[in-house]
Design brief:
Blueprint (H helix, E strand, L loop, with lengths): L3 E6 L17 E6 L5 E6 L5 E4 L2 E4 L6 H6 L5 E9 L8 E7 L2 E2 L2 E3 L9 E7 L16 E2 L2 H6 L1 E9 L14 E7 L1
Antiparallel strand pairs: 1-2, 3-6, 4-5, 6-12, 7-11, 7-13, 8-9, 9-10, 10-12
Length: 182
């Protein structure tokens, strides 16, 4: 959480009112007590991550629906959230996730005339699908001390939104990571 201290000097405080005054000049100084971090998404044993300035893409190679249905590793990719240029003024980083269209813990396909009944879930690396983050901007996780230094290892996985409902086609979805600091 950014904290900003505003100090203002009120001109004319305690002076008699001036009837002819038509403007009020206020001068203030803002002091930033702590800046935040620059967060990037980096490749980490998975497909190449492209992009910069807060807009990144990660492409999972074409995968069969059978791999999506069974939760095979071929239907997922690893990456890291990496913090840099952080201020010493914080002790914690929290992350939440949002998506435009959601089914339970999965962000669903946004591609027109593409795959149906398929969504992507994001979880910490090497954890069960039951640990997918709920993309509702309230399910938050805290970065450990090691993760603040080395990055948070995550996995994005394609899964059926409802068992037996998956249909093949193009898939595209957008996840937004939101960060707060303490």
């Amino acid at each position: 959480m950014k904290r900003i201290l505003l100090t203002s000097a009120l001109i004319g405080l305690g002076l008699p009112a001036v009837e002819a005054a038509t403007t009020l000049d206020v001068d203030f100084t803002a002091t930033v007590l702590a800046t935040t971090c620059t967060i990037t998404i980096v490749q980490d044993g998975g497909p190449v991550v492209t992009g910069s300035n807060g807009e990144y893409s990660l492409t999972i190679p074409d995968v069969g629906l059978d791999k999506v249905v069974t939760g095979d590793v071929a239907a997922q990719a690893n990456f890291k959230l990496k913090a840099s240029d952080c201020s010493n003024g914080y002790s914690k980083i929290f992350t939440t996730l949002t998506g435009a269209s959601v089914s339970g813990k999965l962000i669903v396909n946004e591609a027109s005339s593409g795959a149906t009944g398929v969504g992507m879930g994001i979880k910490r690396r090497d954890t069960a699908d039951s640990t997918f983050f709920t993309p509702n901007n309230t399910d938050k996780f805290e970065w450990s001390t090691g993760e603040k230094a080395d990055g948070v290892p995550l996995t994005v996985a394609l899964r059926e939104t409802t068992a037996g409902a998956g249909r093949t086609g193009a898939f595209q979805a957008k996840a937004t990571f939101n960060f707060t600091y303490e």
